[in-house]
Specification:
The protein has 15 helices and no strands.
């Protein structure tokens, strides 16, 4: 079985077990939180906040789970409760609990695409902030498996998965997704991103000659955004410098300089190479 699909199946099994346990725990706590269920959304938030500020995190989470299982509330309203409590935990520096709260959004009508779309966006933003790349990837895959997305959006999500795999130094998995994306590519922008991410993978594995070929292919599409174009030019210069091809390194560093946010670093490399050439 393809490793990528095996990974998806394992994730689905894990998430299913997680959801069942959450539901069982929430129902077991129902008798203790009848008061929470009989109040308005603002009162719910206030009671949950009181638990949290008092350090009663398990009670707060239990009440929260029971609230979001209250099917008399619309999915969007239950998600709004989650969001508010999430920010309370985040502001308190309770990042692990904050992430767990966002994941509870999957308990709110899992087929509700609007909720899942918002949940993925918030989860990815949060987990990238705390550099939890695997959690980001899980959120992406769950979204693709449960929401029917148009081809353009699917490509965008797959590129995000590739980026997160690479940040996690899971290059083999990133390359499997690159293979999947290749079949969806149609425009110059699609292929520019495909070559760019493939180049990033080779560069980060110190395969500098291969990275050079791929960065050039990405630039040749003339469709990269300014940040990726600047990074491609800088890394081409770096690759050539590592390979002791100083003239080519200087050429690409000088092209990267006006576009880069790290101008100081590039200026130092240019000065170093120029001084070397004068000897």
């Amino acid at each position: 079985m393809h490793p990528l699909f095996l990974g998806k199946i394992m994730k689905k099994i894990f998430l299913s077990v997680f959801f069942i346990l959450c539901v069982m725990q929430a129902k077991a706590l129902a008798a203790d939180f009848d008061a929470v269920l009989d109040v308005s959304q603002e009162e719910r938030i206030l009671k949950l906040k009181e638990h949290i500020l008092a350090g009663d995190y398990s009670e707060g989470l239990g009440a929260l789970k029971q609230s979001i299982l209250d099917e008399t509330l619309p999915a969007e309203e239950r998600f709004a409760i989650l969001e508010k409590v999430y920010y309370i935990f985040k502001d308190l520096g309770k990042y692990k609990e904050a992430g767990e709260i966002l994941e509870l959004a999957y308990l709110i009508t899992p087929v509700n695409e609007k909720v899942l779309q918002k949940t993925r966006a918030e989860l990815v933003r949060f987990y990238r902030t705390v550099r939890k790349w695997t959690k980001c990837i899980d959120a992406h895959f769950y979204y693709l498996e449960h929401v029917k997305v148009p081809a353009d959006e699917k490509k965008a999500v797959l590129f995000e998965i590739i980026d997160d795999y690479q940040k996690n130094r899971a290059f083999e998995q990133a390359n499997h997704v690159l293979d999947e994306v290749f079949n969806l590519c149609e425009t110059k922008q699609d292929f520019a991103q495909l070559y760019y991410y493939h180049a990033q993978s080779e560069f980060n594995q110190n395969n500098y000659q291969k990275a050079i070929e791929l960065y050039k292919k990405a630039l040749a599409q003339e469709a990269l955004d300014e940040n990726r174009r600047a990074n491609s030019l800088y890394r081409l210069g770096f690759c050539y410098e590592i390979l002791h091809e100083e003239d080519d390194a200087l050429y690409y560093y000088e092209r990267a300089l006006p576009l880069s946010k790290n101008a100081f670093v590039i200026e130092r490399r240019i000065e170093k190479l120029q001084a070397k050439n004068k000897k």
